[in-house]
Structure formats: C-alpha cells, structure tokens
Amino acid sequence: MPSRILARLGPAQIGSAALLCAVAFVWTTPFLWMVVAAFRPESGGSRDMASLLPPLQPTLANFVLAFESADFALYYLNTLLVVSGILAVQLVTISLAGYAFARLEFAGKDILFTLFLLQLMLVPPILVVPNLTTVVRLGIYDSLLGVMAPYLASAFGTFLMRQTFKTIPRDYEEAALLDGARWWQVLWHVLLPLARPGLVAFSIVSVAAHWNEFLWPLMVVNAPEKRTLTVGLASFAAGAEGGQEWGLLAAGTLLVALPLVVAFLAFQRQFIDSFMFSGVKG
Amino acid sequence: MPAISATAEHPAAARWRQPLAVVQARPYLLLAPSLIFLVLFTFFPIIEVAFASLFRTAYGQRSGSFVGLDNYLRVLQDGAFRNAVLNNLLYAVGTIVPSLVIALGLALLLNESSRFKAAIRALVFLPTLIPLVAAAALFSFIFLPGIGLLDHFLAKLGLRGFNWLGDPDIALASLSVLTVWKNAGYYMLFYLAGLQAIPSDLGEAAKLDGASAWQRLRHVTLPLLAPTTGFVAVIALINVLTAVDHIVVLTKGGPNGATNLLLYYIYQNANEFYDLGKASAATVISVALLLALSLLGLKGLEGGAARAE
Amino acid sequence: MTRMIGTLAAAVAVTLLAAPASAATKIEFFFPVPVEGKLAREMANIAKRFNAEQSDVEVVAVYTGNYDETKIKAQAAMQAGKPPAVALVSANFVLEFKLNDQIVPLDPFLAAEGTNKDAFLADFWPALRANATVDGKLYAIPYQNSTPLLYYNADLFKAAGLDPEKPPQNWAQLIDYATKLTKKDSERWGLMMPSEYDYLGWLISAFTMANGGSYYNSSYGGEVYYDQPSTLGAVRFWDDAVHKYRVMPEGVTDQKAVSSSFFAGNAAMVILSTGTLSFVRENAKFNYKVGFVPGNLRNAVPIGGGSLVTFKGLPEDQRKAAWTFMKWLSSPEQLGSWSRFTGYFAPRQSAYALPEMKAFTAQNPDALIAVQQLQYAQPWFATFNTVAVRKAMEDEVQAVLSGKKKPEAAVKDAQRKADEIMLPYVQSTALTVGTGG
Fold first, then answer.
1. Inter-chain residue contact A152 with B128, CB threshold 8 Å
2. Is B124 part of a structural domain of the chain?
3. Which of A132, A228, C59, C404 is most exposed by smallest CB count within 10 Å?
4. Its pTM surpasses 0.90
C-alpha cells in the first residue's frame, strides 16, 4: 500500500509540478520584467534592458518621473469612484433582471433575453459617436457619471444571475412564500444570499473590466481632474517623436496594475472559490 | 380533525394575492432599470448606426444623402474589409483554440486545493487584471527586435529572433500570443468551476470500470464540460471581435494591413477616413456576424445545459 | 435712525469694497504629447502661468493622447456640440480640418490688430507657411516643429575607420558608410529608419523630395505624385538598402525599436525626428553626432510637429479668449522656452535671437545643426483625407520592405489607391466648372 502511494507521488506528480512551474514562469515573465525594469536606473538605453536580474542599485527615479508626469493619486480616486459606482448600480439591475428571467414567465421573455445578450457584443468602442451625443444630451458629458452610464445595465451580469438563480432549488422560495413572504423579501432574504458566489464572481469581473476600460473614458472626460488610470497610462505608451523610456513605461504600468493585483492576491481564495461555486459552469 | 379542503386557499396565500395586472406587470418592471440603460446606450445607438449606414456625405455636402445599400456594396468590395474579415478568422482560430486548450489543461492540473496549486492559479490569472493597453505596452518591449525580452532570451539559446510585430507574416501570430497570455487564466476559472460541478462518483465509476485517465477525460469529463466550453467559446469569440486596444497601441492594423481586424477597420473608417457611412455599414455587418455566431454557440450551450440538468 | 443709517452705510461699504464680479472666460485647450510624458505636466504649468498673468481668460489644458487621438477627440467633441477653444493638432491635419469645415481662419483677428497674414508669417520659418495656410488664409499658428535628422554613433564610426566629423553627404555615401558599419554576427545594422504608419510616410516624402520630387501638390489637396520617377527612386533606395546592400533590417521597424537599437549600439546610424534630440542627449552613453539627412539630387526634409487651431461653433467670448491664448502661446519667448524644454524647433526665427536661445544653442551645438538644416525644409504632406492617402503609400512600401513587392508595382498601386480616395474631392473641385473660390 505505502509503495503504491509513493509510486503515485512519483514521476507523474513531479512531472506535472515541473510543468506547472514552467507554465507559471512563462506566464509571469512579463510581470517579472515589469517589476525589475521599474526599479532599474538608466531607463533610456542599455543592452541589458531585457535582463530579469534585479538591478544592483535599485532606484525610485522612474516612479518619481511617473508621478511627475501624471496625477496618479487623483486617477486612483477617480477610477475607484467609477468602478464602485458602476458595480453598485449593476448589482441592482442584474439581480432584478436575473430574477425575472430565472423565475418568472411572461410574454416576449425569449425575445427580451436575446435583446439583452445583444449588449454583450455591442461594446462602447463601436458605438462611441452616438453614445457621446446621448451623454451630452443627458448633460453628463465630461463627468464621471458619463463614464459610468453605458455600463449600468449588464447583459453578462443578468445572464450570470439567471444561471445562478436557476441552480438554486425552488424549495427555499416556496417555503418562504408559504410563510407569507412577498416576492421582494424572497429575493432579498432567500435568493440573493444563496447566490452570493455568483454576485462575488460578477463583482470581480465588473471591477476588473471597468478598471481597465480605456477608449470610452478617454472620449468622455476632458477635465484633467476627472481622468482615470488607463488614460493616465496612455501618455507613457505614447511617444511618437521622442525615444521610449522603458523604465518609465514599466513603472507606469506597475502603478496601474498594482491595486487590482494586490487586492486579488490578498483575497484570492474567496475570489476563486466564488467562481467555483457560483453555478457559472455554463 | 378539521380537514383542509384541497381547493381551499392557504390563509397566507390570500395575503399576497394581488391583482392580476400587477403580477403581470412585475417582470417588466423588474427589467425596466436594465432596459432603460440598454435602450439608451445599446439599442438606440444601433438604430442610429443602422440609419447612418444608409447615408453618405460626399465631399462638399453639408449632410448625407440617402444611398440605400450602396455603403454595404462599397464595404464588401473593399479589399481592406475582406482582408480584415480573413484576419479576424485567423485570429479567432489562433486565439480561441489555444486559449481553451491551455485553460482546460491548466484547470485539470490545478483542480485541487493545495497551497502550491492555488499559487499557480493566481499567477496564471494575473494577466486578466491589467488593462489591455498595459499588456500591449509590456509586450511592445517583449517583442522589440534585438534587445527585447523575447529576442534576448532566444539569443541566449543561440536562436535568431524575428521581427515579431514588423513582419507581415507573423505580426498577427504575435498579437495572438498576447491575447492567449491575457485570457487563458480567465477561461481557466470557468473550467475550474465546471470541473467542480462534475460529481466525482462518475469519474470513480469509470476508473473502476478500468478506464484510463485519457479515456476518462474523453468520455466523461469533456462531454460534461460541453456547456462550459460553449460558454467560454462565446466569451472568447466576443473578445476576438471587440477588443482591439492592443492593435491601436502596437500595430495600427499594419504592417501592410496584416493585423487589421473588423473593429479596427470600423474605427479607422470612422475616425481616420471620415467615412461614417462605410463604418456604419461595416458595423452592421460585423454585428450581424457576431450575432449569428453567438446564437449558434448559445444554442449549443443551452442544449448542453438542458442535457446536464 | 442711527442704527438704520449705520446698517445702510455698512451695506454700501461692503458693496463698494467687494471685488468686482469678473467672469474670466473659461476655455479648453486640447494638446497631445507625442514626445514624453512629463511634457504633459509642463504644458499644465504653462497654462497655470498664463492664467496667473491675466484675469480675462482661464485656460484648462487637457491632455488628449497623441496627435491621432487628439484629432479624434477634438472632432468627437465637435460632433457632441462642445468643441475645445484651442487644440494643438498635427501640422499636416490643418488642411483636412479646413476641408471638413471645422476650423476658422485667423485673418479677422489679425486684421483687428492692424496686421495681416503675410506680416504675421514673416517671422516664421518659410517651410512652415504652406501647412499653416489654405487658399490664401491663415488657419493655424505653428507651435512646435521638427524635421528628420541623421544621428550616428561616433565611436562606431572610428572603429570602422570612418571620420566622425564627416557624416555621409549623399545617398551613395550613406550606403557606403552603412555597409562598412554593418556587422552581421554582432547583430549590428549600419542604418535604421522607422517604418511604421505616419513616420514612414514622413520619411518617404523626405527621400522623394531629396530626389528632386515634390511628392504631392502643396497648392491643391487632390493630387499626389506617387508613381513619378522621383518617388520611385526613393522607394527603390529603401528596397536596395534592405535587400541588395543589406544594411537595414527587413520588415517594419517602429521608432521605439530604432531608438532603442541606437542606444544599445545595434544601429550605427539612424534617421529620427529632431524631437528625439533631447532624449538622445540625455541617454546616449556613447559619443553621438548629428548631421543633415543625406540628399541625392538636393537636400530636402519635410517639417513635422504641431500647430494651434481654433474651432467653429464657439461662442463669441470663447473665440476671443482662444485668440488671446494662442497669441500668448506663440510669442517668441514662449516658443523659445518650449523648444528648449522639448527639443522641438521654435517656429519663429526671432526666437533664436533671444539671449536664452543663443546660450542654449551655444551649449548644445547639435541643436544648432538641426536649426541649420531648416534651410532645406519643405512642407509636410497634406491632402484631402490625408491619413488614407498617406496609408495608401505606406502599405505599399511596407510590402516592399518585407520583400513582398517590387518598388515599381508598389508605387503604381499606391497611386491608384490614392486617386481612388481623392476622387470625391477631385470631382467636386477640379473637375467641376463652378463659380470659383
């Protein structure tokens, strides 16, 4: 018996562990370079720019330059406001709509659902011009509200909640209904708590997606104090007539990516678990 | 013992019985908040775009004149459009297939809760968390000829690098690598969720029957993962057709149109060539294509989900 | 009674002493940062200084990406009914903005000040005037300008037995030197030039003009000369450099790769914008020198850079405020200080007579060479639907550089595509008998 277990821990296990390490290394190489290059002095040019070895004399000069070039603290705040605002409203709209599609029968249900799914494909970049005009007409041009508006309804979220609700057995609701609960109490006290993994999974996707949104915020907002992180990063990736400061680029990218990465690493167990148990299996 | 007649109403039910009209209106009221935003920012703009596709503003005119389906003809006859469609097809196959295979493979290998595996899962998922423009910025260095990361390490192995983004023959493949790197970890999460939903007794039963790991994979796991695969494939397809940030940052559709994709073609015609009629027509065509493919995928998904239930 | 008078007096006093309600007109200034990130900060500082110096106008400086993004943003803002008051646009987009009827001529402002276009432009370098005027009217004020420049590694020159004080003077010498400097085994190229969209068109026009040609019709936006011998010769030169003499890498290389290779010693000579000069000065760890871009039949370089324009559809007070800002921004002192900070040219000749500029060029002789090349400067390619017509040529040349097409076929196809694109414009102008003007 013990020898069989040992044999099991043999080549196959070690082989797969080695493979996984190799995959993880390849996958993180861009990030490794980013971190190393951000602290490396002499960002302009050297043959060893691609080296993954940490610099002998790490410097914060690139970060200083990055902060000089853009108001990162403000961008963090704006981005935070935008993603939380969007998420707050989305949680309401998708719960209500997901409940309707999952539990209620009504005329035109399939057509309406298909219409919802259309939104998955019709991303803002395709519709920038008409959306800009709409935003101006509503009086929210050049404001964070204008950045949030097109995303407040989410087909993906609705679809996710529908799937999640569908996997919850009806017994719980029926018991509650028999006890005299109104439908919104059923939703609030029974369904939503049981659907928490789905909600968490969606929240992660929503925050990540809107943290990283670029084209729409660029078009909607003019005032420098309302800019988001990605727009701030764009000034580093540009550089048509000048040289490319790779260290600065690495530092800027690090600053933009850091919050989400840190949040994820701190809460990753909850993140991944929620994905697993959300009923998002298809 | 007092008998409760089968037809008598439960006293509690009477309390929440509401007028039929209210009950009937409820679903629509629930959908209303979402629908308001959808109409404002998705449907109305689509109608505007579809409308715009029927007009063309010739030079010197103040506003467009009705040209019927002429814009559609111009789009279909445009070599750049056909090129973009072909590129998108190649890009779709070149990213969706590897992404799914890698995602599934990683999910199978990482479907255990150990500290080690959790760490690997986290590392593979990281690329999803950064903006596409940031990923493109990093890869602009990785793909730099000669001194970039890739060529640097290839040189250490004694191999010559290529002009990753500047050679029309491989530029699209290079961008595909970027996309796979960015998305595989995200799709892996879906597969992990899907694997969790497979009852372990099925696998055990197959093992007792003497099935090998490969056979278990083929005949038990994969079929049960069909709904997940369908779902992920649709998400991946949408990504292929709607995410062009990296093209905007890295290649601008070049070299020589080698990385021109549908959405970038639309963006170019609208913003660089001022041909709103053509851009609108191309948008309508792309959306129709997207719809058709997605509905196909979703039909398979619904079928699979129904079967699974 | 006394109390009432007291209160009244107090009220009057307060009213009299209160600061007059001055409504400073608020205007937006869209600007791109094509050179470096910290320039965005500097521009914000410039706006602050302007606001502090006077109280009639308050400028909000809005960073809008690169030249292309700025153009898109300005036009989107126009369509949304909220155009910016002033924008810094690519110098060769001025024609397009005018043809699309989006910007207004500046002559009325000049007239109100008792001057005119010619007097105003007299202080600007001659090569800049063509891109700033359309149909005899002034539509833009040049703000920052550049030309291509030859940068080379003096140390590598010496190692190859070449005299660093004598850069190549013509195409034949360029190839000759490049051949001596190319070292295949150590991955070193003799010559590298950016060939991505926008840069490539700029450089091909440079080589065409140096080959005796004009590349495009600078008086009429419906004509380009892609398939003329001068252009063909230029494209052949690039093709030969890559495939015959093998001194340049195959395929498309963007300016990031070119500058990075130059710093790493992987490229001995490069042709880059003068806008890169400060960056090179700060970062090159070897002895570098600059020289004129070699010509063939003559020396010729196109200008690049950006100009200030103001848009249609502005309320009257914003338009006046826009002019005030544009005038201040384009004064010799402001142009000089921006030039020193960025490495761009000051578009005004008088800026170079100012003491700070004189001291600067004395300390940085390479900047002086760039200024001396201005005697050979030509206007920047601008036509109807400039980007599409420019790309028509660029796509073809990129195919040539990748070994997929021969120059003869490439220039013919480029001409055909360009003519197709310009047809609507040509049909309603040159091919129509109208009332003129």
1. no
2. yes
3. C404
4. no
